[in-house]
Amino acid sequence: MLTEERQQKILEILRKKGVVKINELVNLTDTSESTIRRDLTYLEGIHELKRIHGGATLLKGRFNEPSYKEKQDQYISEKSRIAKYAVTLIEEGDCIYLDAGTTTFNMIQYMDIKDIAVVTNGLKHIDALVERNINAYILGGSVKARTKAVVGSNALKNLEKFRFDKCFLGTNAIHLEYGFTTPDPEEAVLKENAIQLSKEAFVLADESKFGEVAFIKIADLKAATIITNSEVEDYERYAKKTRLKVVTK
């Protein structure tokens, strides 16, 4: 396979999957790992993709919002590890806010603590919480079909009535200068207020979110502890601005 042909194939695979590992590309292109690494370096240099630990992901537009289904199918094992660790931070008697993200949704399967109260704006989340007999509340407001989230002014008014021990949020992007950002202004307002209404705030994010910038700012990095799956590029610089917990198992 010619170099240009192979690189186009890599981009086609990425457009279909959103994220791909090096070993997958080795098998799909029938070439060596070193060749694939060189291809990824070149394609990143011309701004066609972003390299991540062990693979690559598509560059994201600042206003681009993947659907819930698209997010659900990406970084499955990484999200599971992050979610499992996040649940260990919940204590008996806690009142928590659970954001409408796919990683926060994964937390529910590990929740064995019954003496807690959970407030969420996630349509998917509320069914799963009720099925586990967890004391749960859902915000009222407009339904955003693409992300299965309840948003809008009514949701914000509902949220402002609560006070939380901890909140667990997702984010589309994490950047050293621009902090936590997301494509949707309505979701950004809810996330920002959840942080302000909580004693402790945690952002659950796989490694692909680092170095990215989306449309609307949620908060500065210092506002929350980041739980992620890998020691990312510029780890030391991030560690100076926020609290990081890297979950590898």
Give an overview of the whole structure:
The protein is of the alpha/beta class and 249 residues long. The chain folds into two domains: 3-57, Winged helix-like DNA-binding domain superfamily/Winged helix DNA-binding domain (Arc Repressor Mutant, subunit A); 68-246, Rossmann fold, CATH 3.40.50. Helices cover 38% and strands 24% of the residues. It has ten helices and 15 strands. It has helices spanning 3-17, 22-29, 33-45, 68-72, 76-87, 102-107, 123-131, 153-159, 185-196, 235-241; strands at residues 19-21, 50-52, 55-57, 95-98, 117-120, 135-138, 142-144, 149-151, 164-169, 173-175, 179-182, 198-204, 216-219, 225-228, 243-246. The strands form four sheets. The protein has a seven-stranded parallel sheet with strand order 6-5-4-9-12-14-15, sandwiched between helices. A three-stranded antiparallel sheet has the order 1-3-2. Helix 10 (235-241) links the parallel strand 14 and strand 15 (243-246). Helix 8 packs parallel to helix 9 (185-196). The longest helix is centred in the first third of the chain and has 15 residues, at 3-17. The radius of gyration is 19 Å and the shape is elongated.
